């Protein structure tokens, strides 16, 4: 795992603010972006120094501006695992070398010529290569839901986004709403209902970026709900893959209660804290982000997380981080079973 120490800055002071306290200056998008850039640049420099030919953007991540709204950037961070050779080198793992060479090494002998590349390839094919999934995370589509963006910033600083996966991250999809602390953007548009009409510049820029990305193995949208008293989630699982929902509830419990309501957002729950809505795209003209992702074949497993914004910010950030970590662990376990 990459390592990068989080700076004891405005972020650390933010964590223990009461839920009703005004958010400090870090929530200004320029400050958030500066913090994100600092961490991303450190990772990129680490990647450059450790590069084996993959390039800094591959090893250290790439921060790019994908749009701009009234001078405020809309940005994405991606990190693709560099291609590694799975053919064992002559001095590599003895489990990947032919038996004759293994026997000679055990007797202290050295081969007089390199192992034939065909033998290396044959042995390598017998080793199951670990799956490297493509994981998409987004946050901040509603500007008054700060825990998601701050959780992603902390995970980035902690080196969480390592070689286990290819990462595609949009940490603040509503920069002006983030500045103002409003659900909607500056034009009063709820961006999470605009992924069909595409009236907003933010959604148009986001979709243009998404269209240049590969299909994802998992999509994870971080949200908050000011009306709830506990955590709940939406599961979008059109192909019936193994559910991560029970593990996600367990990940949230140390930080907050599970939402007790039987009706959430005018929908009956499927299980305590879990909604599995069967949404037909043709029945809605106010598509949320997850519906756009599903309809355009960007995933076959997606989750929307909802932490209660009535709680203090620190446990909400901690819960969002634990949820991301649990989802990644569960996905890797599924794909490498």
Automatic annotation (TrEMBL):
TM region(s), chain numbering: none
Active site: 306 (proton donor/acceptor)
Alphabetical GO biological process terms: proteolysis
MF-aspect GO terms: hydrolase activity, acting on ester bonds; metallocarboxypeptidase activity; zinc ion binding
Pfam families: AstE_AspA_cat
Positions of the UniProt region annotated as Disordered: 88-126
Protein name per UniProt: Peptidase M14 domain-containing protein
